[in-house]
Write a structure and sequence with these properties.
Blueprint (H helix, E strand, L loop, with lengths): L3 H36 L8 E11 L11 E10 L5 E4 L2 E7 L8 E5 L2 E3 L4 E8 L1 H4 L8 H13 L1 E8 L1 E7 L2 E7 L6 E6 L4 E12 L6
Length: about 210
């Protein structure tokens, strides 16, 4: 009998520990789900806002394959959430001519961005051949002809492509997303014969930033 009692106590202890472990895990899970639903970013309330404020081009020259051309874009990155911090890793952006998103014509590299709750930052993107590195984007003959024709007309359109690795954090909680902002086409005026032009928007052009594709 004496030898059976320790085994019985051991079995009871194991059962109690198992129940406590299960209850603890359930509590942690419920608290995690509750906290995520309360503080986590929601598709209908994306914390990150991106707006295009200004766009300019200088040194536009098709004859040298745009190697000396500079595109400067002013954007606003803002965090409209009062609880979350937003961190964006260093990222590369691509510039597209007209309405074609098949092949980019230039590149820009932007340093990492941190936005505290209810904070915003103006970011200057500089697109040029240096930002693309040793391997330059292939420029199709049709694209070069189109740019040349638009320069004579005095107006042209561009699109911006971005892929962002974004982290949302509050306390010990965090959520990571790969975002692909959908920015509107930008129409700019060009001074014929100078290769220079641009536009400053009275109402900034807002990019759509879906949390999920």
């Amino acid at each position: 009998m004496a030898s059976e009692e320790p085994e019985e106590y051991s079995s009871i202890l194991q059962l109690v520990l198992t129940v406590l472990g299960t209850v603890t895990a359930m509590i942690i899970l419920i608290v995690g789900i509750t906290m995520a639903s309360k503080y986590g970013p929601q598709p209908q309330h994306q914390p990150l806002i991106i707006k295009i404020h200004a766009f300019s081009v200088s040194g536009l020259n098709v004859s040298n394959l745009l190697m000396a051309t500079n595109w400067d874009i002013t954007l606003l990155f803002a965090n409209q959430n009062s609880e979350l911090e937003v961190a964006i890793d260093r990222f590369r952006s691509l510039l597209y001519y007209n309405y074609t998103y098949n092949d980019p014509i230039s590149c820009a590299v932007t340093k990492a961005i941190h936005l505290g709750p209810k904070k915003q930052r103006v970011v200057q993107m500089k697109f040029n051949s240096t930002q693309c590195g040793e391997e330059q984007p292939f420029l199709d003959e049709k694209v070069l002809e189109g740019i040349k024709e638009d320069e004579i007309k005095g107006e042209m359109s561009f699109g911006i492509g971005m892929k962002l690795m974004v982290s949302y954090r509050t306390g010990i909680l965090g959520w990571d997303y790969e975002l692909k902002p959908d920015c509107p086409k930008v129409h700019i005026g060009i001074e014929s014969g100078t290769g220079n032009g641009g536009v400053i928007f009275d109402q900034p052009k807002e990019c759509l930033v879906p949390l999920r594709d």
